[in-house]
Protein 1
Amino acid sequence: MHSGCLTTVLIGVLEVRVMRVGWYLAMAAVTVLALMPIEHLQLPVFDWWDKAQHALAFVVLTGWGLLLWPVHALRVVLGMLAYGAGIEAAQWAVGWRFAEWADLAADAVGVSVAWMVVSGWRRFQGRKQERSVS
């Protein structure tokens, strides 16, 4: 193997490792934020902004995971849904946070949007490559 090719491969591997470490740190940050006590906050019965934050967090984390582990897309999607359920269960268990089915639904919306966007992008890229070859 030419040394330039080896360098490119090593840089690619390093980039993927850095991106994976970043993903794990983001997952840890979301977990901490989800379980952190919120003092003196009066929560409305249904807050659209809270649901949007859930959906956005799960779009980003799921999309990132799908890009990092493309051959394990179903595992990533199911894992993110389980992670959302786990956060809600942990919020229920700690006592100072509230578990809500609506939060889990917002998480599922985020996971679904990420899966559709990444899948659509991959199909587009595949068709683009097919056109460039022909």
Note: The chain has one domain: 3-133.
Protein 2
Amino acid sequence: MIYYISLLFNYSMIFLFSEPSGHEDKPSLLSVNPGLIIWQIIIFIFLIILLSKIAWKPLLTALHTREQGIKDSLDQAEQLKKESLELMEQNKKILSDANSQSMKIINESRDAANRVREELMAKAQDDSRKLIEQAKIEIKQEKESAMADLRNEVSDLAIKAAEKIIKDNLDVNKQKKIVDDFISQIPSN
């Protein structure tokens, strides 16, 4: 764009300062005109000074601003990447800790359940053993009671039978003693 503006300015200067000649010789493209070269150098220097004062500072400022913005964006992206990696590591660690704690809780609950089951089994066995012992004691007591009742019944029957047989030969105390001796000889089963 600047190039085209300088060309337009150069050609306009040439047109203004060119001498009208009486003869219509057209200069060739390869001909050297020292006046034209000097004017082109002056115009070029003027254009560079004008552009450096007006356009270069804003352009350089815009370029530096853009460059700084890109650097800041890249730095921020790098920082975000580091933070995301740190967060991922923290999440992995938290998941690992949560997993180990859940396994610990599961194992503790299994152990507690096993202890409770063993305690219940031991208590049930103890209770059943106590019930069996109590039943044996009650059976033994009932058996002894039944045997005592049976002995009394047998002795009474024996006494009545002996009374009928002997009728008047023995008194009651002697008969009782004979029967008790006889019953004590009988096995207790």
Note: Residues 138-185 form one domain.
